[in-house]
Amino acid sequence: DVRSFAVAPTADTARKNLFAGTYGGVVFFSTNNGDTWKDVRISAIGNSITALAVSTDSAGGVSLYAGTDGGGVHRSTNNGASWVETNTGIPLPLAVNALLVVPNPSGGVNIFAGTNGADGGVYLSTNRGASWATSNQGIAGDYVNALIANGTYLFAGTSEDGVYRSSDNGKTWVAVQTGLPTNTTVTSFCVNGTVLFAATFGDGVYRSTDNGASWTATASGFTDSYPGAVVSSGSTIFAGAISGVFRSINNGTNWTAVNTGLPYRTVNALLTVGDGKMLFAGTEDGGVFRSTD
Question: Which member of 79, 131, 200, 263 has the lowest number of beta carbons within 10 Å of its beta carbon?
Fold first, then answer.
């Protein structure tokens, strides 16, 4: 049961390192586009790996962050060979459902964690996970499932409270719900140029062309109301749902199911690699599937 993906750069520009996080608490690592995978699990952590993210530094170092269901955030600087717990400021057992790495003006990175549970919401680290502080002002509720950056804006997708937007690096947030159904639960975001997509639990995929100020449904051909993941690849959008993968080549105006060779249809996570030449689908009970067309 694969719940999350991440991709990291390598010294070989033609190759990427891939990571997959699972419900069973294992992180898998591939150096050959998913042909083989290595178990790089976090010792003594049995919690589901619900989010993965990668940051790089000016010296070319790569840090991998894993968000867990109840075990907080863990960091690895050696492709998962070893891990350190980086939870100072995050009250456990919060579930970390989303991680977002954004460059900050000082030349470092801001890492945002979307969490679920009492005292949940958005947490921010400005020191690569060494410590965290709440970054929730304006967000109603304690459940944040998805995070994304688009230009100078950040977006947070919540459980039953729709979408929130920040224009000041997460210091404050405002609700941007126009056009969304009441009590919308957002499971995933993606951006295609200036168009923002939100996958919702029970209401399909919504699209915004004005940075969240308004939203419209993208239902034509999308026959599943429960997408769990959306990703963009060039001008193409993919959505993973309970009934498989859907593709749109016109910014969500129309969708087509693309499931040939995918026997396990509940898709929880998607990843595009190689300028969109490869699509990876993380499935429930079936592991990882790859498409090159």
Answer: 263
